[in-house]
Structure formats: structure tokens, C-alpha cells
Amino acid sequence: NDTELIGTNAIKLEIVESTTTSLALLKDGSVTGYGPDFGILSNIPQTIQGNVAKIAAGYKHVLALLKDGSVTGWFGNSDSSYDYTINPPNIIQGNITGIAGGYYRSLALLKDGSVTGWGFNHIYIQDIGSIPVEIGTNAISVYAKGLDSFALLKNGNLISWGYNAYGQLDIPLQIQGNMTGLALGRDHAIALLKDGSVAGWE
Fold this sequence. Notes:
Layout: H1 2-6, E1 10-15, E2 22-26, E3 31-34, E4 52-57, E5 61-66, E6 71-75, E7 96-101, E8 105-110, E9 115-119, E10 139-145, E11 148-153, E12 158-162, E13 179-184, E14 189-193, E15 198-201
Antiparallel strand pairs: 1-2, 2-3, 4-5, 5-6, 7-8, 8-9, 10-11, 11-12, 13-14, 14-15
């Protein structure tokens, strides 16, 4: 049983979108996983083991934020032609504190609180060069799902941009300024509020 190998050592779990592959970041900074491989598990770079601070999964790809602030990534066996999704601009390497993965695209939170992105620049989702200016240097975390992106700001506000196929970008005004975390589904979003309660929309 692959889950028995993880034991009580997991600190973060991610499910790779469009697959049923699950990944776990362990306390020692290594990455493992279970479920169908699709090349995702067997392609985990051995050179990063013991040096991973955070993981994020997008559409058939995985990102690993290393302890030195750089990011590396990998695909399953059939997606190696999409390297632009997993390779961040060299200029931001060593300056990254947060990561998120979407549909053949990736987001990064930088040390100064700004947000940048790279990868597939769909007509409806302009991550590259079109990050909302109101984010400035005030972001504390980034999130992505499909063609939608979010940045949580220091003041508890949530900024959204993207395709909005299911209304996920229509954040309820009454919870702005009151959020501390976010989880995204295929067609809905759930926010953790400062008082420990949750609010959802779709």
C-alpha cells in the first residue's frame, strides 16, 4: 500500500488535475505519491529530494518550490512538449515564496509580495504581463484552477482574474477583507474566514 510508505510524515497533499495521481510533501523535504502513475510519480526529479519546501499541482504538471526560493517542475510521460509551463523565468529564480498551477500555466508569489506567471496564455487568461495592477506588492498567497487565478492580499481581500466559466471569479463582496485562505474546485471556490468559518460561491 503506497499510503503506508508515507506514514505520518506528510505535511502537504496535492492531486494532479485531470489525473487521479496524488502527491505528498514529507517532513524531510522529499516528495512521494500514490495512485496511477502516468509518468508523474516516476518523473519526480531525484535531485530535489530533501530540498522541497512546497508543492503545487496543475493540469498534468507538478511544481516544487525549493528551499532556496527556486522552482522546478515536471510532467507525465506524454506532456514533455509543454516545458514552458514548468520553467519559470530565470530572473525570478531564488525569489519565489509561493506557487500555484493551472491549465498548462503556473503562478508564483515573489518575496516582495508581487505575483507573476508563465505558461499557456489563453485569450481569456492573461497571466503573463497582465497580472491585475491592484495586487501590487500586497499578495500573501496565490491560487489557480483551470483558467482562473486568485491572489490573497495582506488586507484579507481576494483578487481574481481569468476565464470565469462557472462564476468562481465573482467573489462575494461581504467576505472581502475577511479571508485567510482559499480552496478551489472545478466550478466553485471556498474561502476560510478570519473567524474560522467558511464561505463558498460558484
